[in-house]
Design a protein that fits this description.
Distance between the termini: 80 Å
Number of helices: 2
Shape: elongated
Structural class: alpha+beta
Number of strands: 8
Strand order of the largest sheet: 1-2-3-4-5-6-7-8
Strand content: 25-35%
Largest sheet: 8 strands, antiparallel
């Protein structure tokens, strides 16, 4: 005589076809949401302007992508290395130069303050091989660890970040 094993509680539940499809649907819905949550947690968020970073916290040397460097001196002078002529174009021309910087906060349409550093380069003529227009970097990070970045589209993360 062969002894048959009765199905357990979980097997009985699994045999219930509507319940089985409901469980599969719930797992399928939760898995992508879980994956998106993990990816968001791992990738971090984009930099956002931080008006709590004051002008006095900014002086120092910052490193950026492609060997770019900017040094902000406390007296308002600056030095750049391997700096692009136009940060928003794919122009490969770079230069080393000096100039001045100024901190200013502008008000966005939503009322938020957007702190920026305006970079002005000495010379400013095509004969001297430096850009004639000022450039701007948005201020972010914390007062202890300020970060500067180029912001051409607020809906996307910046391409160039400058950290100490």
């Amino acid at each position: 005589m062969t002894k048959t094993k009765k199905p357990g509680r979980f097997r009985k539940l699994w045999r219930n076809r509507p319940l089985r499809f409901t469980l599969i649907g719930v797992v399928c819905l939760m898995f992508p949401v879980g994956c998106i949550g993990v990816l968001n947690a791992v990738s971090g968020e984009c930099l956002r302007p931080n008006a709590k970073v004051s002008e006095t916290a900014l002086p120092g040397a910052y490193r950026g992508p492609d060997g770019m460097r900017v040094t902000l001196h406390p007296d308002g002078r600056l030095a750049v290395r391997h700096w692009p002529y136009d940060p928003f174009l794919d122009d490969e021309r770079r230069f080393d130069g000096r100039g001045s910087w100024a901190y200013e906060a502008t008000e966005a349409t939503n009322g938020e303050q957007i702190p920026e550093v305006e970079l002005s380069f000495d010379g400013g003529s095509l004969d001297e091989d430096v850009p004639t227009e000022d450039q701007r970097l948005v201020v972010s990070g914390t007062p202890q660890e300020p970060v500067l970045f180029e912001q051409d589209d607020p809906d996307n993360c910046p391409d160039a970040e400058f950290r100490r």
